[in-house]
Structure formats: structure tokens, C-alpha cells
Amino acid sequence: MSSQKRSAGLLLFRSADGGAGFEVFLGHMGGPFWAGREAASWSVLKGEYGPGEEPEAAARREFEEEFGHPAPDGEWVPLGESRQAGGKTVVVWALEGDADPARADPGTFTMEWPRGSGVQREFPEMDRFAWCTPEEAAERLVAGQRVFVDRLRDHVRGGRAPDGP
Questions:
Q1: pTM of the model
Q2: How far apart are CA 43 and CA 40, in angstroms?
Q3: Of 128, 123, 87, nearest in space to 104 by CA
Q4: Cα distance between residue 96 and residue 63, in whole Å
Q5: Torsion of CA 136, 57, 75, 106, to 10 degrees
Q6: CB 77: neighbour CB atoms within 10 A?
Q7: What is the pLDDT of residues 102-138, one digit of tens each?
């Protein structure tokens, strides 16, 4: 069994521009490392899963943990996988739906901060959420996740999204 880390996520999208375009729902990564950064500091709502969990279940769980509300109902569109710069493989599905960024109630994580201080502090996994055009997402998303917006664009334009994992 491989020890390679794997994450699964859900890219929520909605129609925009009177149906001519679309927007995607992204989260800004929380914690002191990402504070004050905009470019390449946003993410698809996703998280790691182990060998005993199905990726779809992990994507659903992570959406709820990071946003604080369950994913809306609807048809999941597989956007395939992408290997990130750090070696992790991420699999993502798109789901047409809506969510209000102002209603976010994100999960938290604990880490020592400042480093070496011995003080444990709690931070939100995602500290804010926003709807973005594909062009905005290309600037905001970490580089390894931009491919999912491109694949979603192909799907929305009537192309065929890649098969799932």
C-alpha cells in the first residue's frame, strides 16, 4: 500500500453573467502562513483521506468541515486528479449549487504559534470564502489546483470532463 498522501475535494460552481459564464466557490487558507496573502493562497474545499475512506465521502466530509455546512444536493461532475507540487494527489468533483460565504462556520486546527514559543493557538482551516470568476480563480488558487477550473470550464462549455479516479 502506498503512503502517498491523497486529498479529495468539491468545487462548487454557479451560473453567472446571465448564464453566459460561471463562478467557483473557494476558501482562503487559514493560519499565520497564509495571513495577508491573496495570490496562490486560496483552495478548493478539500482534505486528506486514508485507505479506508472513499474519496467521494472524504470530499463531502471536508466541504462540511471547512465551510461549516453540508454540500448542496446535486450531480457530481468528476474533474479528475492532479498531482500537487508537494507530491500529494488531489481528486476533485464539481457540483452546481449555491453557498453564502457570510454563513461560513469553518473548522479549526491547532498549532504552535509563534514557532518555538510553546504556545498552542487555534486557527480556522479556511478564514474566508468567496465566489470567483475563472479568471479570478486562476490568480487566487494555489498553482496545482488551477487545472480543476480549466476542466470545469470545458465541462460548462459542453466538453467532457475527465473520468473520475
A1: 0.91
A2: 8
A3: 128
A4: 14
A5: -40
A6: 18
A7: 999 999 999 999 999 999 999 999 999 999 999 999 9
